[in-house]
Amino acid sequence: MKKKELTTNQLIEAAFDLFAEHGLERTSLGMIASKVGITKPSIYYHFSSKEELISRTFDHIFKDHHYDKYFQTDSITKENFIETLYQRGLVMLPDGNKEHFAVLRVLGEFMMLAEREEIYRERLTNMHQEFLNGFRDLLLKGVSYGVVSSQTTDNKAYMLALVIDNISRCMMMKFDMNYQDVWKETVNSVLIEEARAEFQK
């Protein structure tokens, strides 16, 4: 790897760590430069501004955050639909490591930034819409299998996405809750009555 590429990646990683600890606004370019052991002017060799570094950090954090990473819809069958929805939903939740919680903290920073800057509002909206579309398509497959009601499918997709998001935040804040049971109840709520009975076995 070339020195420029290595240093650029180091700057992004350092920026991520500091954004998670101090927030976007309170993290200065000087702090980032100090963390990787270079002078502040050297940052401009890699990024034209703090804004560009923030944008590149966003891309770095969420480059692999796609619905298909968690749910491969084509591999879901009638027999494994319910268990897959439950188990893969759990995979989307934080696993307790510090990096995952750091991502959630930085995501919160970008959500606040999105209130002021349209470009981040659009990027976050597109990311969330991808997951909503994925859940909707998954539920429609469940409808075709006869395990999910055909009514209010879009609302059910929103609910799945919102519950995942809120459980993640509660886990980050160390709320005392059985998040697996909460997710199980959520999955249960989108199933038809006969499928619920099977899921509870």
From TrEMBL:
Gene3D superfamilies for this protein: Homeodomain-like (1.10.10.60), Tetracycline Repressor, domain 2 (1.10.357.10)
Keywords: DNA-binding, Transcription, Transcription regulation
Coiled-coil residues: none
InterPro entries tied to this protein: DNA-bd_HTH_TetR-type_CS, Homeodomain-like_sf, HTH_TetR
SUPFAM superfamilies: Homeodomain-like (SSF46689)
Molecular function as annotated in GO: DNA binding
Record flagged with keyword Transcription: yes
DNA-binding region as annotated in the record: 28-47
HTH tetR-type domain location: 5-65
Source organism superkingdom: Bacteria
Listed name of the protein: TetR family transcriptional regulator
Species assigned in the record: Paenibacillus glacialis
